[in-house]
Structure formats: C-alpha cells, structure tokens
Amino acid sequence: MEKVRRRLLRAAKALDEGGVDYAIAGGNAVAAWVSQVDEAAVRNTRDVDILIRRSDLARVTKTLEDVGFVYRHAASVDMFLDGPDAYVRESIHLIFAGEKVREREIAPNPDVTEVVRAENYTILSLDALVRIKLTDYGDKDRTHLRDLIDVGLIDQTWVARFPQELGARLQMLIDTPEG
Questions:
Q1: Which residues, listed in sequence order, are joined to residue 85 by a DSSP beta bridge?
Q2: Are residues 65 and 26 in contact, defined by beta-carbon separation less than 8 angstroms?
C-alpha cells in the first residue's frame, strides 16, 4: 500500500510542477473522500488511476517519464509502469476526460475541471467521482459506491442528481447495501 501511495504522490507532484491538469480517480479518490469521514473505513487499492485530457497525453508522458515512469499502451489501456522492470499491476492507468471507456457506457468521463484539492494532489469532486463509478458500474465500482454510502458521503438525496439510469443504479445500491 505504501508503494502505491508513493507512486501516486510522485506522479501528482510531477504533474502539478508540470502545470498539467489532472485528477486522481478510482480507488485512491474514493479513499481520499472516505478518509475525510472515517479513516478506518478506507479500502486499499493496487493501482493509481489518473484522469487527463487526451490532448495532454504527450505532455503527461514527458512529465511522468522525467520522474522514472515508463509509458506503455497495451490492450487498449494507456499506462505508466513504475520503472522499466515494473509489473503492469504496479502502474498508473490513464483515463481520458470527456471520453467513454466502453461504448456501452451511459456518459463520458468528467473533465479535469471537476476537481478538488486533497492533501498533496487533485482528486475528482465527489459528484464527478460518483458519476464515473455509476457509469462504469463494475464490481469494484459498486464496492466503492457502497463505501461512500456507508460513511454518509452520499445518500438518497443524490439519486435525483443523475440521469434516470444512473439514479436507478444508485437507488439499488442504497436499497441493497449488502449487495
């Protein structure tokens, strides 16, 4: 877990110093939000997800390679390995703002303007994070959403904030907290 945190902080510092707009997303963003309410409820994650604009990819690549990350594109995923001998699971995964990861998704990813500052890095706003989790809606996403519900960061009042299908997904999670 400490390696993941160091990887996140090193990448965020480089992006901040390089003036690149970004947002930490995924499990690390959920952890940052959950920790504001209950540090004991924070769940570990193995990778780092960073939301960027595709138009910034060349700048991001240069910035992260300058601090030791190695760019790879494999299986339709853009990532940065934590050094030339690192495993894929020891990586930073890029998510592109304003794009859908899969065509079936209801909404595109949020923009890097929907952010807040947390500790030493920028994370997705809670609204944008919930939206991206409801859109992808995989097992991990549902678990993350339940974590946010469990600590009281999102509740019944959030259902109406989203398009009908996303709101229905959130309502199902609220109604069935044990899955």
A1: none
A2: no
Please report which confidence band the pLDDT of residue 105 belongs to, taking 50, 70 and 90 as the band edges.
confident
Tokens 């707009």 found at: 21
Residue 87 banded pLDDT, cuts 50, 70, 90: confident
Integer Cα distance of 113 and 111 in angstroms: 5
CA dist 53 and 15 (Å) reads 13
**Is-contact 80 72, C-beta < 8 A?**
yes
Give the distance, in angstroms, between the CA of residue 46 and the centroid of all CA atoms in the same chain. Answer: 12
The sheet with strand 23-25 has its strands ordered as 70-74, 77-81, 91-96, 48-52, 23-25, 121-124, 115-118
Cα separations in angstroms, 173 against 125, 146, 170, 177, 178:
20, 7, 5, 6, 8
Distance CA 63, CA 8 (A): 14
Helix (H, G, I), strand (E, B) or coil at 177: coil
Domain 2-126, architecture per CATH: 2-Layer Sandwich (3.30)
Tell me the domain boundaries of the chain. Answer: 2-126
